[in-house]
Amino acid sequence: MEQILPHLDSVFSIDCVLFGFDGKELKILLIERNEEPFKDWWALPGNIVGPDESLDQSASRILYELTGLRGIFMEQYYAFGDPHRHPQGRVITLAYYALIRLGGDKELRPISTYAKRANWLPITDLPKLAFDHQKIYDKGLEKIKRRIKHQPIAFELLPEKFTLTQLQHVYELVLEKKLDKRNFRKKIIGFGVLKELDEKQKGVSYRAATLYRFDKRKYAKLFGKEISF
Amino acid sequence: MEQILPHLDSVFSIDCVLFGFDGKELKILLIERNEEPFKDWWALPGNIVGPDESLDQSASRILYELTGLRGIFMEQYYAFGDPHRHPQGRVITLAYYALIRLGGDKELRPISTYAKRANWLPITDLPKLAFDHQKIYDKGLEKIKRRIKHQPIAFELLPEKFTLTQLQHVYELVLEKKLDKRNFRKKIIGFGVLKELDEKQKGVSYRAATLYRFDKRKYAKLFGKEISF
DNA sequence: ATATAGTGTGTATTTTTTACACTAAGTAAT
DNA sequence: ATTACTTAGTGTAAAAAATACACACTATAT
Hints:
Number of strands of chain A: 10
Largest interface: A-B, 21 and 21 residues
Radius of gyration of chain A: 19 Å
Oligomer: homodimer
Strand content of chain A: 25-35%
Largest sheet of chain A: 7 strands, mixed
Number of helices of chain A: 5
């Protein structure tokens, strides 16, 4: 980082914390940088906002370029603009988080053109991050912890059909605490946004659980109203 | 707005919704624009972020230039970046809200150099706003409604010493609903962030109410924990 | 002294949250 | 077919929190 780098006069970028859930762990997608500064460091995926893109569009594009996915739930959560956060000049960045179901049908293989490689890494064991990305990540995790308590976003991390145990598992991972099974079910069913299906889980070597689907119409009614975990 | 205006290539600005409370009403500070575009329209105060300013610093500066106040509680809440939100070019703006006690000792006379005039206008009767400022304001109000429910920020709108009735009044105005006096007191005192003073309200033509002060130390402990109204 | 206007207080009821443990169902191995 | 194993699925009692509700007190103004 001692070498001479071009100076960026003033740039506006977006950085994304892509949370993925594979049924077991919460992971985020990180890229290994191929350029100075912070060459060989892991970093959050991000890019400069294009002249004709809205902010949400830009975030979606970054996600698409990296994962090939569209239509993913994303939300901006904080702008980071310390004058010295980027060694090459003034870069103000807006952070987004996304919630992604991993490993359903096809393996989600990140395609990255602008980095050495990209990997889904479990949040319990993250490497040191470039720039102020640790701070950005921390704030992102904090954000989804709050959000999941008050709005039904946990579904975004699950396949279309899921069991109540899987759903509970997501809550436990994000909130970092154990929940009581009976109370959890009482509460989540009480919200009335789940539709019980006539279908059972398959391929498990024990009693198969009932599958549920998330009911978008009821969800729309609930949205805005405060729920609480 | 049909005249030829200089084109802004790409600008990053901050706009502020300054909420003020004068003991009776919630108001916001608006400026009347003196320049195209939107000449003579009312707008939220805002400015371009300087090259060596952090975002918070920039917001504080805008507030200071307009009101002469420092040390006011401000928080960023949303970035607006529609490519066409500004007719002269790409202007991405980060919105802040601030909470200000009005009309205590001295009248708060806004000083505005870059506008025809500035005024505190009651939120119940706002004029049409320039650009997408109505949207920015709406989202700001929504934000403080949520915030006041979960974190003790209502104090920021009140003088240092205040009565419980005044505090309740703030909650009622922001949440736009009536609250029960006894239950309100039970709850707010239960949080343990208020210190009862040996002092009474003055200058009222009825039984004077006990004054309270906000206890910063206890507040610090509570902060982060979720409270709920 | 009287009228006025807001202060300050307690309890019973309902609702919500929490804590807690066993049987049922399906699979796998023998 | 029996058994062992693993997770699914269910109810109730106790505690805590939220709500609904009304009147006596006190300072001031006339």
